[in-house]
Amino acid sequence: MFPKPHAALTPNTFAFEALPLVAPTGFREYDARWLFPKDLNLMGVQALGLGLGTLVHELGVRPDIVTGHDFRAYSASIKLALIAGMQAAGLRVKDIGLCLSPMAYFGQFALDCPCVAMVTASHNDNGWTGVKMGAERPMTFGPAEMGRLKEIVLSGAFQYRDGGAYQFVPDFAQVYLDDLVSRAKPLTRRLKVVAACGNGTAGAFAPALLERLGCEVVPLDVEADATFPRYNPNPEDMAMLHAIADTVKATGADVGLGFDGDGDRCGVVDEQGHEIFADKVGVMLARDLSLQHPNARFVVDVKSTGLFASDPELKARGVETDYWKTGHSYIKRRVNELNALAGFEKSGHFFFNAPVGRGYDDGLLTAIAVIEMLDRNPGKSLSQLYAALPTTFGSPTMSPHCADEEKYGVVERVTARFREMHERAETLGGAAITDLVTVNGVRVSTADGTWGLVRASSNKPELVVVVESPVSRARLEEMFRAVDGVLRENPQVGAYNQTI
User: Fold this and answer.
1) Where in the chain is the domain with CATH 3.30.310.50?
2) CATH number of 14-170
3) pLDDT tens digit string along 4-40?
4) What DSSP line would sit under 75-87, residue for residue?
5) Around Cβ 67, how many Cβ atoms within 10 Å?
6) Which residues of 451-473 are buried (b: 16+ CB within 10 A; e: fewer)?
7) For 235, left (φ over 0), alpha (ψ -120 to 50), or beta?
8) Could you tell me which residue ranges the Alpha-D-phosphohexomutase C-terminal domain spans (predicted)?
């Protein structure tokens, strides 16, 4: 029998090489993330594969699974250890090699595999690894499946089965790119596009796709370098957005597109070098798509702008928008449940349902949607389309450090504090509290439409803070100070990664 995993082992010891290490904190709400090898060793990855195979059979799902890995120095070894465990648990594995997360999701359809296990730490710093998993295409695991997987792995309750198999699928990237090109409409004008990949996996695929679409491509940080020397490939990171903006202005590009480490997100910069936060890009795409598809319905996360509900154009067309929990698995599932046309997250995860896409998040398909929106508006630049939106003042996503063991408790206390202030008719930032949304953390709104959000990050030891005001930048800053003041009542909250 495979040994029961340990929660901690000392590196450079016999025990570290002889026993599986799996830190419990690596099991997140909808995927898994660990520092490797601090919190997870290769035997621990085998245990994860055994646990995943055990869960797939427990769920009664056909045991065919597609797997692949992102570009990091250790990802291939992580994947091979995962495959060893999955085979031992009776899974029939189809390995598509180096790939993007949406390429693996596409593989569930193209290779007829109900299940997926994508080895990636997405945009996390070098040193992180993880797995995005699913057993019901196009959805990925949520808290129930992740909780059960955690139980199986940490208790060592593995079920071995015969029938495990392995097949490597050559040249699958070409099949994926061909499919994307077939879904795109021919462009009527040649657009100059900056393609920024942060030295991550997307550099192997995104520039080639954009060239096939007929764009003039300006590559930025597309060379492979798993140390991410300039910045993490994260389109929410202002360092990446500023680098894209500088290149757009220097080259006279029509648009700048930034892809995250595993290619399921896309950030956007206009031709003037202004970074457009992804939720505002979502409003622009909702306007564009609702013209092509009447009676469209959208899903957005609670971090997103209030414009999805208040934009006059969307309201005039009867567009319905559902605000839901942040997280790619949550939004993906909600889009599927409501049969929405698309889902948008402020993080840059965009989910296009039929007839545009297959319901999963794909940064390259998002790039196509942005390019087609520009092509359908030949007399307008991206900055003009953005300027047509009602003005709001929004923050980037700001993440103060907070330990995984502490962050959910902090959010509970902050939620209780805001609820108490509301009940006592206390003001927040000088304005009365009018509403609390607690579907995912707490989103507190005031009478003038200004709001602030606090939630626990689902994949890092951090909190997530976002603020927006339709009034003024001064009001935005006032709300941030007020929300941060409540946060600072908790000494477990550390420094921000970035602020307004």
Assistant:
1) 393-496
2) 3.40.120.10
3) 999 999 999 999 999 999 999 999 989 999 999 999 9
4) HHHHHHHHHHHHH
5) 28
6) bbbbbbbbbbbbbbbbbbbbbee
7) alpha
8) 431-483
* Structure token pair of residue 442: 């707490």
Query: Has this prediction a pTM greater than 0.85?
Result: yes
Residue 197, by phi and psi: left (phi above 0), alpha (psi -120 to 50) or beta?
Answer: alpha
| Residue 50, SS3 per DSSP | helix
- Is residue 123 within 8 A of residue 260, CB to CB? The reply is yes
Which tokens is 494 given?
């550390």
- How far does Cα 48 stand from its chain's mean position? 22
- Residues with Cβ < 8 Å from 36, sequence gap 6 or more? 74, 78, 127, 128, 129
Strand 92-98, strand 165-168: pairing:
parallel
**Between the CA of residue 190 and those of 14, 212, 253, 299, what are the distances in Å?**
60, 12, 11, 32
In the chain, the N- to C-terminal Cα span, in Å, equals 53
Burial letters 279-292, b for 16+ CB under 10 A, else e: bbbbbbbbbbbbee
Q: Is-contact 171 95, C-beta < 8 A?
A: no
What phi, psi does 263 have (nearest 5°)? 75, 15
Mean pLDDT by 10 residues, the chain (500 residues): 96 96 94 96 98 98 98 97 98 98 98 98 91 97 97 98 98 98 94 97 98 98 94 91 97 98 97 95 98 95 93 95 92 96 95 97 98 95 97 94 96 97 94 93 94 91 96 97 97 95
* Cα radius of gyration (the chain): 22
CATH 3.40.120.10 residue spans of the chain = 14-170, 184-388
CATH fold of the domain at 393-496 = TATA-Binding Protein (3.30.310)
Q: Identify the residue whose tokens are 């949304």.
A: 437
Rounded-to-5 percentages of helix, strand, coil across the chain: 40, 25, 40
Find tokens 């108490």 and name the residue. 420
**Residues counted in the chain:** 500
Q: Which long-range contacts (CB under 8 A, 24 or more apart) does 483-487 make?
A: 483/428, 483/429, 483/444, 483/452, 483/454, 486/414, 486/417, 486/418, 486/454, 487/400, 487/410, 487/414, 487/454, 487/463
| Cβ atoms 57, 148 nearer than 8 A | no
Q: Sign of torsion, CA 159 160 165 169?
A: positive
Q: What is the third-level CATH fold of 184-388?
A: Alpha-D-Glucose-1,6-Bisphosphate; Chain A, domain 3 (3.40.120)
Tell me if 454 sits within 8 A of 464, measured CB to CB. yes
Beta bridge partners of 318: none
Q: Taking a C-beta distance cutoff of 8 angstroms, is the pair 483, 467 a contact?
A: yes
- Report pLDDT digits (tens) over 288-309: 999 999 999 999 999 999 999 8
Residue listed under structure tokens 């953005």: 386
